[in-house]
Design a protein that fits this description.
Length: 443
């Protein structure tokens, strides 16, 4: 409707499409608002596309109501660490701790007072916080900032107590915890301290702050999830997600449309998403939208195979290698030698004959008359003069009968060639026939 996909049109798209106008750039950060999208590149340039009705694209021109293609907002002189987007406002965090905001300020969600509460800020403007900021998050109409010393500042819509204080303007949240991360939903806020514990405030009509039997919480309150350390938090419109240090995902809140990854319409306390545990996957990142959730997970450590001290991922479409003890190999009483020889034909070409010989190599066998040489010769393929004359492969095994059976099954009847070929040991083996497919021997 507003071109928030940056594809040059307003049609719905049901599979990932490349934003061609950004192809020359290396995109590092992405943030999605209600109907606009903000991206930043490795050159610290910010682009926006979609709805600009409240100035959320950072375009001061009145006539730019929306943009179907990426439009340049600005380029910062410092590295961009994080970007976040609310319903109609945008925030960018720089490496030096400065935060720039633009867009709607009708609820003072940009952290600054204006003469007219409904006035918008259409160009990037620095937030007046006297401490370096290390983390930011935008809700629908409120914003949260975490400083380097662990203080939490919030501003904007104070309804349901989601700011953790009773003021609209930018203020510090009263807490003794050292906060390191913050996530804002539509009407709730989740904070993470340096010990991996979660604290919440705001609306809880769907269980989005994970507190049982309360509809809202006006101040930061501890939310019990698990004994494990929480390392990442994220909020959607009315649901929340928590990742542990071991890669487990817990979720709570509104479960409509399956966005909790659990077949329950509502979860009032954080619940483990067992699907990733069952598949032996460690969750690395999670991002919550209005009615959907994206999860990035990787195979757990025990899914890796140590092969010659090199960790390799298990293949899902091949059988695992069969391990044979060295002692078993040394004690084998028989040795099967498979080799190929090249013989000339009447027309001047050379043909490769596959030979399989069973030899009794039992060292303590004194009866040398019991030793037998049994050979099958099969015409396999015509070769030119550059073909190596002999190829040898030695395979240790007792089951020569299995090889004989597999070889016979792979031979295709050809009566004309049977008349022309000479066969060794006719009394024991069938006539040689042309092999139409590659010979495979399984031991």
């Amino acid at each position: 409707m507003f071109g928030q996909l940056g594809l040059g049109h307003t049609e719905n798209v049901y599979k990932p499409n490349c934003v061609k106008n950004l192809k020359p750039d290396k995109v590092k950060h992405i943030a999605c608002g209600r109907s606009h999208t903000i991206v930043s590149t490795d050159k610290n340039t910010v682009y926006g596309f979609g709805d600009n009705s409240e100035g959320q694209l950072g375009q001061p021109m009145i006539d730019v109501l929306n943009s179907y293609d990426p439009i340049r907002v600005t380029q910062f002189n410092d590295n961009i660490i994080q970007i976040s987007a609310g319903s109609y406002h945008t925030a960018v965090l720089l490496e030096n701790g400065d935060v720039y905001v633009w867009g709607s300020n009708n609820e003072r969600q940009l952290g600054m007072d204006t003469i007219n509460d409904s006035a918008n800020i259409k160009i990037p403007t620095i937030v007046p916080i006297n401490h370096p900021v290390v983390f930011i998050s935008c809700g629908h109409n409120h914003t949260a900032f975490v400083t380097k010393v662990g203080d939490l500042f919030t501003c904007g819509d104070r309804e349901y107590g989601k700011l953790g204080h009773d003021l609209w303007s930018l203020n510090k949240v009263d807490t003794t915890e050292k906060i390191v991360q913050v996530a804002c939903g539509a009407n709730h806020t989740v904070a993470l301290n340096d010990a991996g514990k979660v604290f919440v405030c705001g609306k809880n009509d769907c269980g989005q702050i994970g507190l049982r039997s309360v509809t809202s919480q006006g101040h930061l309150y501890p939310c019990p999830i698990t004994n494990e350390r929480i390392v990442q938090i994220n909020c959607g419109e009315s649901h929340s997600a928590f990742i542990t240090a071991s890669g487990k995902l817990f979720m709570c809140g509104d479960g409509k449309y399956g966005k909790l990854c659990i077949d329950i319409n509502q979860i009032t306390i954080p619940m483990l998403v067992s699907k990733f545990v069952d598949k032996n996957l460690n969750v690395q990142m999670v991002s919550c939208g209005g009615n959907h959730t994206l999860v990035h997970a990787e195979p757990a450590e025990n899914e890796l195979i140590d092969n010659d001290n090199v960790k390799q991922m298990k293949s899902t479409d091949t059988l695992p290698p069969l391990k044979v003890a060295k002692k078993v190999i040394e004690e084998r009483k028989e040795n099967i030698e498979i080799f190929t020889t090249i013989t000339p034909t009447a027309n001047g070409n050379e043909q490769e004959a596959l030979s399989v010989i069973k030899k009794n190599v039992k060292e303590n066998n004194t009866d040398m008359n019991d030793m037998t040489d049994q050979q099958i010769q099969v015409d396999k393929k015509s070769y030119n003069d550059n073909t190596p004359k002999i190829k040898n492969t030695v395979i240790g095994d007792k089951s020569f009968e299995k090889i004989e059976k597999i070889t016979n099954n792979m031979l295709v009847n050809n009566s004309n060639e049977q008349k022309e070929k000479k066969v060794v040991n006719k009394s024991k083996y069938p006539r040689n026939e042309r092999i139409r497919s590659r010979l495979c021997v399984f031991i």
